[in-house]
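User: Continuing from earlier, I have the next pair ready.

Assistant: Great, send them over.

User: Here they are, in order.

Assistant: Folding the first of the pair now:
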Amino acid sequence: MKRFTASLVPIALVTSPLLAQEPEAWTATQDGTPIRFGTTHQITSAVLDEERTVNVWLPPGHETAEEAYTVLYLIDGGVEQDFPHIAGLAQLGVISWQYAPLIVVGIETGDRLHELTPEPADPRYSAQFETAGGAAEFRAYIANDVIPFIEASYRVGGRRAVIGESLAGLFIVDTLLEQPDLFDDYISVSPSLWWDDQAVAERAVERLGAADYSDTRVYLTMGDEGGTMQAGLDTLLAALDAVEDAPDYRYVDRRETETHSTIYHGAALDALRWLYSRPPYDYGEIPWYLIEGGHPDDGPDGGSE
């Protein structure tokens, strides 16, 4: 095995004439121009009785397009949370034609343990996690403050989607069961279904059988977390299979390839491809330079005109 050793040299000791010179050629551009990647809104929430942050990424041409867009609501959507990389996937869809353009709405969270967990019934969890149990109120904030603001401000289509990972994934499964009509498409990555001794998953059969899920789609995945994380997900999957009118769902087992810290981005890409895929882009006939022995005088397919 080769070993590479990095040598750390304090900058103050480097005396190269090149480094010591004044960088005259580029000093004028050091201020630069900030790159705009979305818009931040401060919403005064009547539900939470405080000001909250929501970040929005729009597809290019949104202002003049006749098209109405599916909105992807992102839990943990702060600029220091998951907003940049999920909005980046929406931008990737635009430039690669893999899936339909989306509006991404990043809903920033604060005390995640409070906002993303349902109130626990098991006293062990109440004692250990004193601030937990605010998921119902946070969901009401999304339903009564965030969604109306977005739908009044942007060109939205008929579908709403929600995405999140870990505790946010738990919140999404809980929302699927407790308020299924809030969204149409649910993307839950490595949901923390260990919460409250797996209580959310345990009530899945009852809840899934009590609501209309005919137009609901669910994407589920988990990495190598194992333990009560996987056990809770297995219970949820069994419920989805057992209930006759359960939502259409896709489960991707990533135990052999991903960890809790590596799973999110790739899984999100896979989910968007499944939910909003478009036909492969038609590049037309093969140009001459992609064919062995082709010539510019040949036709576009490499044959003589």
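And the other member of the pair:
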Amino acid sequence: MQNGATRTKGLSIYAAIAFAVGNMVGAGVFVLSGLIVNIAGPSAVFSYLLCGLIVVFSGLSYAALASIYPEDGGGYLYARRILGSYPGFLAGWAMYISVTIATAFVLLGFGIYLNLLAGTNLDPRYGAVIGLVLLTALNLRGIAEAGKIEIALVASKMAILVGLVVIGIVHIQPSDFEPLFPGGVGGMLQGVTMIFFAYIGFQVVAMMGGEVKGSSKNVPLATLASIGIVALIYTGVVVALLAARLPSYGSESVFDASVVLFGTIGGIIVALAALFSTLSAANANIIGASRIILEMASEKQIPGRFARIHNEQPTNSILLGAGLALLLILIGNLSFIVELTNVTILSTMALVNVSALILVRREALLPPEKSYFAIPLGIFFPLLGVASCVAMLFTLAPPIILLGIGILLMGSVLYLIEDTPEGERVVREIRLLLRRPVEDVSEDSGRLRVEVP
């Protein structure tokens, strides 16, 4: 492997976990949890745990591949190295679109809670745009500073949520779990399909693997640790909602439950936590998306001008993502955004699981001195990962699936565009930044390529 991960790095394993947790603990807690309880009742606890288990199948694939390819790019990089050039492009483009859409979604949530905290009734898009501008400026300054801010944001909101969970556990009664399955097993499974969007943030760690210190070891650890932490937080919040014994549950139930459990100050506390959550999730998304574009440009899969760098930061990539997020903020529909994101991200995850499946079958090709994360039980978990992604795709409406596939195919135009001389210069500059041979850009290949740094 070319040593793209050895440039100056600013992220510790704690910052990497913070980025992933910050990305996942957002709308999945403050909006979805009440909706899931409304559908599944107390069995929402099982909905969150089962969905977390399904995500772990794919998380193991990401962990194994990240330990071998500890560079920026995540799922794009893995599909590119193992499946070949065009499948890699599709994985990268799908990741970029899904992460950009998610950025717009969580920033709209920021605007909603900013209104709630300030006691105003402005269009939430105003707050979303303000948050986007601030985070874009922050990321243009550098990854290390963004990492420090991320740790602070995640620590703040986690402290608030842990307090909510603890109070909920203290007040919960066995009768609060009766009936356990008011909507039947079908209601619990419907909750699983709705929750999936809330877990996809674990991929952020792999997307910026080249920025993480000791990435071969720390990226897999951060990936699995973040999924486990978030599963516990999600289920704990559901317990708190049940302990509040609200007359009905919906998108504002966490806010309502906090008022019941904490008193009048509870609403303010939750609004602050939601602001921290949405900002940290958007921050992680902006960084992850910019690194996808940087990696794709470095291997000439998109024109270099889309990833022009300044002060060792992919300035054009960050600005491009911010522009797309701004467009979605201004015109996007939230429910439509979530479903479309699921199409694109499930496509990437399916390709990553296929890549891990091939890796397990070809482990003999790995150098004996290469240390990596070995997936337990061989091909079993990658197969479960592929099957779960396909199954989740088929829970979506056919028009949404077709639209998502259409967006992926339309992105192929970038794959076919010839680069300009200026773009070629940018590619060389990027490869120097990544400490890769300037002219060594591999051609389409389906063969497993592993080189020891």
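Worth noting for the second one:
Confidence is low (pLDDT under 50) at residues 1-8, 442-448. The CA atoms of residues 25 and 192 lie 16 Å apart.
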